[in-house]
Amino acid sequence: MLTVSIISTKMSFFSQNRKGVVIASIVFLVLFIPTLITGIFYYRSFNKNLTQEVFSQRETVASLTASAIGLKLQQLTSIVQIYASQPEVINDVAAGNWSAAKNIIINLQNDPKNYDYFIGRFLLVDTQGNIKVVFPGIADEGIGQPDDAFSEWKTPILENGADSFVSDVFQRSVYPKNNHIEVLVPIRKASVLVGVVGITVPINEFSDYGKDIDLGSNGFAYVVDRLGHIITHPKYASDGPIIDYSSIPVVQKLMQGQSGTAIAYNPIERVERVAAYEPIPTYGWGIISQEPVKDAFETRDGILLQVIYLIIAISLIELAIACGILFLVSHRHREHSNV
Q: What average pLDDT score do residues 38-62 get?
């Protein structure tokens, strides 16, 4: 009989203990499940909103910088159009009096209204693309030779009748052999093309664009031409070899006229970055503002980590409550058993 009584008591204890475990588990789940669902909601919400904020900041930088460069190219084109529209310049070029046309343009350049420090030289070119005048002068072997950018502007200006053209970056064939772009405008007399006037702009003049933008200590912006060649980039010298970035995925999108943001790997620099890309309308150039992924998402990741810590902390409190309930149930059972 004693043995049966002991067994009965133990079975009762385990039965009550299981009841306490069940009650504690239910309490824990009732508390934990809403916490988990709420935590997941806020984690995903913060992740989405903070990620979009990072993208938006870089889109804004790219858009503003693209607008600024586009405005500068427009200003330079307007100056060249002033040269090309002067009746004296038109008549002298039509008559082959290149020196007289040069002197008129020099006088125009001396007018503060037409001054722009971006301008390196101006040049006058005949309808075959041969340089007739350059000021300030270049080496004698450059006169009478085809303009370095002739292959680019031949079709749009000579064949398609474009009102202006901005070239891609090229390296001069005569000393000093540094990198330039050209802005060219046709000279027409009674709708007949008689010559072309252009200006050369050293690409280092564009280096200030994007240099002081707020993209963190490791972020920067760079500019490419319509071929995907670097116009300005903080890691490359403006008088070095021309750098081809046409294989970069975001640059390829720019070359197709697209804009947007992406987390992209740069196979040339071997870094994964958050990049916003924006074309410069009319001119075919584009700008990319970028920052390493780790730096760009540092604030976001810190906030998300705090959300995880908060979920864990609340869950531990809930677990402690459940354990407390289990302890109370077990304690009451022991008191009842002793009685």
A: 83
**pLDDT band of 329, cuts 50, 70, 90:** low
Asked whether 246 and 229 are in contact (CB, 8 A), the reply is yes
Residue 305 has pLDDT above 80, yes or no: yes
* Per-residue confidence (pLDDT) for residue 5, from 0 to 100: 46
Largest CA distance in the chain: 134
pLDDT attached to residue 19 = 67
pLDDT of 44: 85
Residue with tokens 């081809």: 244
User: Which candidate, 163, 151, 216, 222, places its Cα nearest to that of 188?
Assistant: 163
- CA distances (Å), 256 to each of 127, 248, 289, in order? 31, 13, 17
Q: What is the CATH number of domain 30-75+207-339?
A: 3.30.450.20
Q: Which residue has the tokens 């209204």?
A: 113
pTM value? 0.78
Is pLDDT above 90 for 107? Answer: yes
CATH number (3.40.50.720, 2.40.100.10, 3.40.30.10, 3.30.450.20) of 86-205 reads 3.30.450.20
According to the 3-state scheme, what is the secondary structure of 282-309? CCCEEEEEEEEHHHHCHHHHHHHHHHHH
Specify whether the CB–CB gap between 284 and 70 falls below 8 A.
no
| Sequence spans of domains, the chain | 30-75+207-339, 86-205
* Rounded distance between C-alpha atoms, residue 176 and residue 135, angstroms: 14
- 310 Cβ contact list (under 8 Å, min separation 6): 39
